[in-house]
TrEMBL record:
MF annotations from Gene Ontology: metal ion binding; metalloendopeptidase activity
Enzyme kind, highest EC tier: hydrolase
Family: Belongs to the peptidase M50B family.
Cellular component terms per the entry's GO annotation: membrane
Transmembrane domains' residue ranges: 380-402, 427-445
Protein name as annotated: Zinc metalloprotease
Membrane topology, from the record: Multi-pass membrane protein
Annotated EC: 3.4.24.-
SUPFAM superfamilies: PDZ domain-like
Record's subcellular location: Membrane
Species whose genome carries this gene: Aquincola agrisoli
Cofactor: Zn(2+)
Pfam families per UniProt: PDZ_6 (PF17820), Peptidase_M50 (PF02163)
Classification via SMART domains: PDZ
Length: 455
């Protein structure tokens, strides 16, 4: 239920803001707005103050909205109202009205990102867990417990890293650009730690998903390999493990952090058989050797080991909070960066340099909306900002069904002095509808594949 409500709120806010951008600028330009609709199809609710004022409606299908303006191309217009018709407006006004929707989404994103930072977001410190074997991070020399304090594109100008989330964002940007990223490990504000380099050109064009950081080698935040709550009757309790035990070695191999320990537990099941392992633990200064045999969870190749205990201490968190002006500046900067990266990723998908699996649809948005709500208001605001940027950028694409397509018509009109012919408009609309249907189908199939674990 939370996921559904969060999804509906997300759509409602973004659609209303987008259409309000069109509505507000149209009114400012003297255009008569006949209807402001949130959703399509059967009207569920309507409000109209006077017969001559704008009709506000809520429709049954909430996947979009529209603003219907007085227009001689859609029906007869009384001579007294001709000056209020959209098609009678100068080219600059028509372009401004069309561009106002995407612009409203981008402006909203700035304030949403700023609001999240004004409230303060709890994020894990940029202390790294053990990089995956053979990953870029391991080859660069990163180890469990390393804290990344600054990053640099050129190795000279360094910028502070405020959290692990901040580090992941900067790494993602560099990966999409296919560029190296220099990391400063330790050293604090003075940047006098040891400098390492991630060769992110090796992952350029790969699918940007939850596993991207794992492929690079920057996974979960560092968590000490200390046992938490032990479930009664489970393998951990039978082995003699207790809450507070620090695991030092498993079968003679050192355990750097909780992530490594969890992987050892999962991998203890092979070919449908669970194998016991010897753990060396530190219990209040005493070294104990225990035999632990995880139980098997799942079937076949997907079977993994479980010990029915909480493994690892909670990651150390920091509260990222900015002042009013700093928050707005950072919100504008983040909106610009996300917009640029979105366009770059779309371009790479278009030329085949990036996977089409990066396209997401309503199911993925709904899933992420529900997750962000459960993490708190700042996380949800940041998620809402991300979707708002995506909606704004998408609508600026030069596709006939989108605002960007109409802006292309106006560009043609401005350059040639004549509007696009009705015949060309008809064929362009048909082509645009086909492309949009294709993209929606692909996004929905990606959503289903993610939910089924196929991606």
């Amino acid at each position: 239920m939370i996921t559904v409500l969060a999804f509906l709120v997300t759509l409602g806010v973004l659609i209303v803001i987008h259409e309000y951008g069109h509505y507000r600028v149209a009114r400012a330009c003297g255009v008569n707005v006949l209807r402001f609709s949130v959703g399509f199809g059967r009207v569920l609710w309507r409000r109209q103050r006077t017969p001559d004022s704008t009709e506000f409606v809520l429709s049954a299908l909430p996947l979009g909205g529209y603003v219907r303006m007085l227009d001689e191309r859609e029906g007869p217009v009384a001579p007294a109202q001709a000056s209020q018709a959209f098609n009678r407006q100068p080219l600059a006004k028509r372009a401004a009205i069309v561009a106002a929707g995407p612009a409203a989404n981008l402006i909203l994103a700035v304030f949403l990102y700023a609001a999240a930072q004004w409230i303060g977001v709890d994020e894990p410190r940029a202390v790294l867990s053990t990089p995956a074997a053979g990953s870029l991070a391991e080859r660069a020399g990163l180890r469990a417990g390393d804290e990344v304090t600054a990053v640099s594109d050129d190795g000279d100008a360094w910028e502070d890293v405020v959290s692990l989330t901040d580090l992941r964002w900067r790494v993602t940007q560099a990966a999409l650009r296919g560029e190296r990223l220099h990391l400063m490990v330790g050293g604090g504000t003075g940047h006098r730690g040891r400098a390492l380099t991630l060769d992110l050109d090796a992952v350029a064009g790969q699918e940007v998903d939850a596993a991207l950081m794992q492929r690079i080698g920057i996974g979960a935040p560092y968590s000490e390999p200390v046992m938490g709550e032990i479930k009664a009757g489970g393998p951990a309790e039978r082995a003699g493990l207790r809450a507070g035990d620090r695991v030092l070695r498993v079968d003679g191999q050192p355990v750097g952090d909780a992530q490594v320990l969890r992987e050892r537990i999962r991998e203890s099941v092979r070919d449908g058989v669970s194998s016991a392992s010897t753990w060396v633990v530190d219990r209040g200064g005493r070294m104990l050797e225990l035999s632990v045999q995880p139980r098997m969870a799942g079937e076949g190749k997907s079977a993994v080991g479980r010990i029915d205990a909480f493994v690892g201490l909670p990651a150390e968190m920091v509260t990222v909070r900015r002042g009013p002006l700093d928050g707005l500046v950072n919100g504008a900067s983040r909106t610009w960066e996300v917009s640029a990266l979105t366009l770059k990723m779309m371009g790479r998908m278009l030329v085949g340099e990036a996977s089409l699996k990066n396209l997401s649809g309503p199911l993925t948005i709904a899933d992420y909306a529900g997750q962000s709500v459960q993490r708190g208001l700042p996380d949800y605001l940041a998620f809402l900002a991300l979707v708002s940027v995506s909606l704004g950028v998408l609508n600026l694409l030069p596709l006939p069904m989108l605002d960007g397509g109409h802006l292309m018509y106006y560009l043609f009109e401005g350059l040639t002095g004549r509007p696009v012919s009705d015949l060309w408009l008809k064929w362009l609309q048909r082509g645009g509808a086909f492309i949009m249907l294709l993209l929606m189908s692909l996004a929905l199939s990606n959503d289903v594949a993610r939910l089924l674990g196929l991606h």
